[in-house]
Amino acid sequence: MGRPLHRLDSACLPPRRIAPAAATVQFAPRSCRYHAQHGNLDCTVKYVDPEGFKLGVWLANRRRRAERLSVDQRAALDALAMRW
Fold first, then answer.
1. CA-CA distance, 73 to 62, in Å (whole number)?
2. For residue 4, is pLDDT > 70?
3. Among 49, 27, 25, residue whose Cα is nearest residue 38
4. Distance between CA atoms of 14 and 61, rounded to whole angstroms?
5. How far apart are the C-alpha atoms of 49 and 66, rounded to whole Å?
6. Tens digit of pLDDT for each residue in 33-78?
7. What does the H/E/C string look like for 17-69?
8. How far is Cα 4 from Cα 7, in angstroms, rounded to an integer?
9. Distance between CA 75 and CA 49 in Å, rounded?
10. ∠ CA 34-27-46 to the nearest 5 degrees?
11. pTM score
12. Which residues contact 44 (CB under 8 A, 6 or more apart)?
């Protein structure tokens, strides 16, 4: 008889998204490194850091969702000369 139709293999499921808190922890040091090298966080959306992380996309998303950031998250980005 085959497998029940309601069961899905993990290969069929969409890839998991990184939790917002985990993404902040992952990208915050990369933002600091970029700022140390360039003096701001004004990178293009296409910018990928040397380790392959899409820092430009992450920062663009922070700009687009600025109203949803916590006061601490926004202050941390402001301290790195974030251009909103």
1. 9
2. no
3. 49
4. 21
5. 22
6. 999 999 999 999 999 999 999 999 999 999 999 999 889 888 888 8
7. CCCHHHHHHHHHHHHHHHHHHHCCCCCCCCCCCCCCCCHHHHHHHHHHCHHHC
8. 6
9. 23
10. 65
11. 0.69
12. 56
CA distances from 80 to 28, 39, 46, 51 (A): 10, 8, 19, 20
Angle, helix 71-79 to helix 20-38, in steps of 10 degrees: 20
Query: Given CA atoms 67, 73, 77, 78 in this order, what sign does their dihedral have?
Result: positive
Structure tokens at 32: 């600091």
